[in-house]
Structures are given as C-alpha cells and as structure tokens.
From TrEMBL:
One of its GO terms (molecular function) is DNA binding. Belongs to the LysR transcriptional regulatory family. GO terms for cellular component: cytosol. It comes from Conexibacter arvalis. Residues 1-58 form the HTH lysR-type domain. Keywords: DNA-binding, Transcription, Transcription regulation. This is DNA-binding transcriptional LysR family regulator. Pfam families: HTH_1, LysR_substrate. InterPro entries: HTH-type_LysR_regulators (IPR050950), LysR_HTH_N (IPR000847), LysR_subst-bd (IPR005119), WH-like_DNA-bd_sf (IPR036388), WH_DNA-bd_sf (IPR036390).
Length: 306
C-alpha cells in the first residue's frame, strides 16, 4: 500500500469515476485504474462497485476511506515538518565547539544565525575537543569546531586556521621576550581541562615539545575552565598557556598578566569535523558557514594588528 494509491482511491471517491479522477490528477486513466486494482489485490477486497456510470464504495471501501484520509493528512504534516527544517523555518540546529571557545565567538555565531533564522532553535555544545569529536562520531552532534589533534576514526577533518599558543605570567620579567619550552619546566604551571589531561590537544602540543626538548612538564594546579586558570595565574599561583587569538583578548586576560610567544612559536590548528559520509542538514551547513566567517574575520583582524 502506497500513499499514491491512497491518493488515487480518495480522488476516485471525490470525482465519481476513474476517468474524472485521472483528469483531475493529470494522469492517464489506465494508470490510475491499475494502481487502485493493485490496492484492492493487496487488501484482498473490492473497494468500488459500479452503479451506472459512477463508482460506489463497498463496505470495505467505506472502512478504508477515513483511514486513507488520516494517513494522507499525517503524511502532509510530516512533509511540512521536514520542509520547515529544510527551509530553516523550524527544528533545532546543533553545533559543537571546543570547550574554551570564548563567549564572543559563540555569541557571534548564535546572533548571526538567529538574525537569519529566528524560527530555528539553536543548541551550541561546548566540550573538550576530544569529547566533542566523539559526539560527532556517534552522531549526537552533526558538526563541530575543534582543536587538533583528535582521534579522527570515522570523521572527516577539515583544518580551518592556525592559532598561536602564548605563555602568560604575572611576573613581568618572564614575558619580556619569547620563552623556550625549557623555562616552563622550571615554573609552577596551571593547566585547564583537568578532566582530559593529556587528551586535551593544547596540553598534548606542549608536552610533545617538552619531550622533544628532553624536559618534563608537571602541573602545579589543574582546573576545568580557562578563566579559572587565568585568575589563579593573575594571583601569582603559577603560569599558564592559552590560545592567543581566541582566549587571549583584552577583556579575557586579567590586567596583572603579561603574555609572550614561545621560542620558537608554538601553534595549534582549529578544524571542522563531521561524521564521515553523513550529509549535513541545512541548519548545520549554515552554522559551519557562519563559524568559517568568524574565523576569517579573526584572521583578518590579527593580520591587520601585526
């Protein structure tokens, strides 16, 4: 039984003959008749009998009629709901970001999307890059902006931009010139994303460089939020490492802290991840495009400041 057959069945009731129903649907009469015949064969009953030149419903046809109407109405509602999502008139759009993505980035993406699509609910999920990559892999989030490296099994990864990691300290003499990784091994260090430890991409980049230099980094304090790490550093409990263009903004960096590049500079890569082979919904495609524009604007402003 198909929706098309039910549509033809109801059209035959409305117009009284197969030929009139076919004309109304812009079909050849044999095509409509054949589909109703197949419906009757599948159900094992006749749905119409002829009374002169018009069709009359059998008892089975009368029983089927209200069910056919409800089925086509439900199908129409389903199609309309999908159309709302397709045309960004409804539904929920979900996008993931790395956990320390700053308020301004998340806020700009959300504001731009809602201005364009006020009827679509928006859900922006912030987790550690490793965790949000797993959410994408399992299909709970369609796409995300993360920091590399992550486990890319089952994922499509598209690098978006590079950002510099910088050393921050409340001691002015420590931020007067670029700092070698060996310096960090001599200082009390404050790391964020405590729950993820070495699975955190930023921490992995630091520890990889330290390992190649033959030194070992040990955190003095571990916290979850980058803001907490900066607050503790500003109060003199240790030094921290953060992203220069994302987390390091004048309003995010306490006035007691200075910052400086590494020697040589140390970078991390932002990337978009999606589940391999899975098409994106229109809303998620729009969110990715908005995030791309925000990153492009960030790069332009960073270049202009250099």
């Amino acid at each position: 039984m198909t929706l098309q057959q039910l549509q033809y069945f109801l059209a035959a009731i409305e117009h009284g003959t197969f030929s009139a129903a076919a004309d109304a649907l812009y079909l050849a009469q044999p095509s409509l008749s054949e589909q109703i015949r197949r419906l009757e064969t599948e159900l094992g009953v006749a749905l119409f009998v002829r009374a002169g030149r018009r069709l009359v419903l059998t008892e089975a046809g009368r029983a089927l009629r209200p069910e056919a109407e409800r089925t086509l109405e439900a199908a129409g509602r389903a199609a309309a709901a999908v159309a709302d999502v397709r045309e960004l008139r409804g539904g929920t759009a979900t996008f993931g970001t790395f956990g320390d993505a700053p308020d301004w980035l998340v806020g700009n993406i959300a504001a731009s999307f809602r201005r364009r699509h006020p009827d679509v609910r928006l859900r922006l999920v912030g987790l550690n890059s490793s965790e949000i990559a797993e959410e994408v892999r399992e299909g709970r989030v369609e796409a995300a902006l993360i920091v590399l490296p992550v486990d890319d099994a089952g994922l499509d990864v598209r690098p978006a931009m590079e950002d510099e990691l910088v050393y921050v300290s409340a001691e002015p003499e420590l931020t007067e010139r670029p700092v070698p990784i060996e310096r960090l091994a001599e200082r009390p260090l404050i790391f964020y994303d405590a729950r993820w430890g070495l699975q955190d991409p930023t921490r992995r980049a630091l520890f990889d460089r330290a390992q190649r230099a033959g030194v070992r980094l040990e955190p003095a304090i571990e916290v979850e939020e980058v803001g907490a790490a900066l607050d503790l550093a500003a109060r003199g409990f240790g030094d921290a490492v953060i992203s220069s263009s994302i987390s390091l903004r004048r309003r995010a960096l306490p006035s007691a802290l200075g910052h400086v590049s590494f020697d040589p500079p140390l970078h991390e890569t932002f990337a978009f991840v999606t589940r391999r082979g899975a098409p994106l919904s229109p809303a998620t495609r729009e969110l990715v495009a908005l995030a791309e524009r925000q990153l492009a604007d960030l790069e332009a402003r960073r270049a202009a400041a250099q």
